[in-house]
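Why show two proteins at once? Because comparison is the fastest way to build intuition. When a single record is shown, students tend to memorize it. When two are placed side by side, the eye starts asking what differs. So, the first record is below.
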Amino acid sequence: MAILTIIFFSAAAAAFILWYFRELQKNKEFYKNIPGPPVIPIFGNVLSVRSTKDILNVLFKWSNEYGGLYKMRLGPIRWAVVAADYDFLECVLSNTQILNKSDDYLSMRPWLGTGLLTSDGTKWKKHRRILTPAFHFQILEQFVDVFESAGNRLVKKLRNEIGKNSVDIYPYVTLCTLDIICESAMGTSINAQYDGNSDYVQSVKSMCKVIIERTFNVLEMNDVTIRLTKNYYLQKKSLNVLHAKTNSVIVNRRKELENNNKDLNNVNGVNGKNEEDMIIGKDKKAFLDLLLEATVDGKPLTQEEIRQEVDTFMFEGHDTTASAISFVLYCLANHPEVQQKAYEEQQMLFDGDKNPTVTYTDLQSMKYLEQVIKEALRLYPSVPIYGRKTNAPVKYNDISIPKDVTIAVFAFGIHRNPKYFKEPEKFNPGRFENMDGRLPYAYIPFSAGPRNCIGQKFAMLEMKSTVSKILRNFELEPASPEHKLNLVAELVLKSANGIKIALNLRK
């Protein structure tokens, strides 16, 4: 028996060694021609990035050293190409052979399944096609009331912070954006700003935490070994709450739509709604409604497919926008001349009314505020790094990029490159006055090309609505003592020590 055991483990060890060295040789010729920092056997370059606090500084340093395009090894065998070079990014982001997300997104699948963010190939293309109409301006303008309502609740909450020397704005904004995306995606309110300790809100926070920690913990990267950790049980508990909530909303909404369709047979309907109200959407359509009505290859989406897409909207639509809004407010607080100009635009649009009835057209007219938001996203892109993976060989200049190469798109790096942005560390919204259409692959806070962010117009409207409302009600000032951001690259860009400003009520 002992001999058999020795033989078994010897064979297993030999198989592992054979696999290991075979993986080391994979695409070796390609990586040989890409510069990069020296590696340590087994560890690669991971010891240079000990936590999320190190990532941006280390990648930015290497990006400058190697001209914006270099390789790094993630552990014993896995390589990645880090890109902040314009020509390379244009090749990657515009190429239909580089649409797949990298393996780093696999940790999101327990929550999001293969929704629009994490799906590959044919499924992504089909679902992108059916979801695109959901972001038509006639649909988006229906959500202005949602933005305004959540924004009013945020202003009410922030009034409690007036006069304090330092306020971390991020937690407040996060609950506001969670309210907005929940009502927009599912058509239901969770009142996150008044009930931040609800099971649903806490489960969203827990899952975001688990996904981050799985990215940096070797034991948790694997779906099998994560079962040995406490995060597995936290993930399981959170997913029970999140999936149950989404499934319940889908089932209830499906029944409501079926009843509404019956009402269409009677122009006045049992609920007193006429046909025009139903079709035009005076009863606002959430994204969920469009998913329930959608078909792929003539067939409706399954309950699971709908849940995955709704959960994807929930995940993508709150933390990224909260990050952006918080950094915009920080920039305005620390640049009074920019804040004054943005405030004057609000005064001109609404004749000094602090609480006007804001319309879609009003939001579209906030041209200077849009420049402010764009510049804040340049300095502080909500997703500073995102991953792609080649699903077929791709030609770049004289280089052939093989299949299964991981590419880390370093948006933070190219946004701060003086080659594309003069005085890149300076906050200057004026640089976006005449930048539309120029260098589309140098400014990529929403990615670019065919797999760009489907919700960027929705996000811009939401950011304008929220920031303009805060601007009209509060004068923003720097925190005291002076607050220096400690940027960390997690799922989205955050500051480890908060995003702090001071608030005074406008007279």
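Second record. Ask yourself what differs from the first in the token line.
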Amino acid sequence: MSTPSIHQRFTLQAIERLKLRKQIETLFQTGEAFSVFPLRLVFRLTPAGAEDIAPVRAGFSIPKKRIRKAVGRNRIRRLLREAWRLQKHTLYQVIPEGKQMHLFLIYSGAEKFNFEEACTVVKKAIEKLAAKVAATKP
């Protein structure tokens, strides 16, 4: 039995996270954005490099201005990452071959929310993002 690739497993590995400052700055300068309350998504399709095996690199942000306590911010970040980890595979199917998506999810709500709400919001965001990517395919 062969080992499953990162596309088949429900994991969120380091190679799937958006961490490089240069990539994040480029994303915010040239990326497209839309909102699915309480999330704001900023995304950009880039050519995939030889070392890039993840179709999507995602980052998560919860502004201190909205959620003052670090405990609350960390909980929301954890919930968003878990919801993303379980549902990201539907987006992976629509990413064009030879491309990679850089994506940042920014929480813009003022109050905390639970896991069911996080899953619902992330699912809606992924569906809207998949539609936008499918519309830009040549």
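One difference worth noting in the second protein: The chain has a mean pLDDT of 87.
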